[in-house]
Specification:
The chain is mainly α. This is Putative membrane protein required for colicin V production.
């Protein structure tokens, strides 16, 4: 009898090897794919971080000429318009972070998928949303005093 073939019963029928039998065939585990919402959450977190850096640099560049000592003029209408655009960009970035947080939660809840991007995206987006929320609460409380 060939050693690669499962043992036969005396009546000629093959016995069905159980999962713990030495003759059971090894089935390799299926390769898990990455979570789609998790990847989207991760990308949204990175894009928003880049957007915050760009908007802070733009706001600094717009206001730099008006921060010089001895300057009595306030910002002109173009500077105010530029700061308004930067403010709208910041609001859009916060919205992106909220959506990224939701996608990170969904990505971690999906079964049979790799979750590394979902976890990283969830952490990045949630930290940004929480820190902006805490800054907002702090500045509103300090303005009320």
């Amino acid at each position: 009898m060939d050693s690669n073939q499962p043992p036969h019963q005396p009546d000629g029928f093959q016995q069905n090897p159980g999962p713990h039998s030495p003759h059971a065939q090894f089935v390799p585990p299926a390769a898990l794919k990455h979570s789609g919402p998790g990847i989207a959450s991760f990308v949204m977190g990175l894009v928003s971080l880049l957007g915050y850096i760009i908007s802070a640099a733009a706001a600094g560049a717009i206001m730099a000429p008006y921060l010089e000592e001895g300057m009595l003029d306030g910002p002109n209408s173009n500077a105010v318009l530029g700061l308004g655009v930067v403010g709208l960009l910041m609001i859009a970035l916060v919205f992106i972070n909220v959506v990224g947080t939701i996608l990170g939660i969904v990505g971690t809840a999906i079964r049979n998928r790799k979750k590394i991007f979902a976890i990283i995206g969830l952490i990045v987006n949630a930290v940004i949303v929480l820190s902006i929320g805490l800054f907002f609460i702090y500045f509103m409380a300090s303005a009320a005093v």
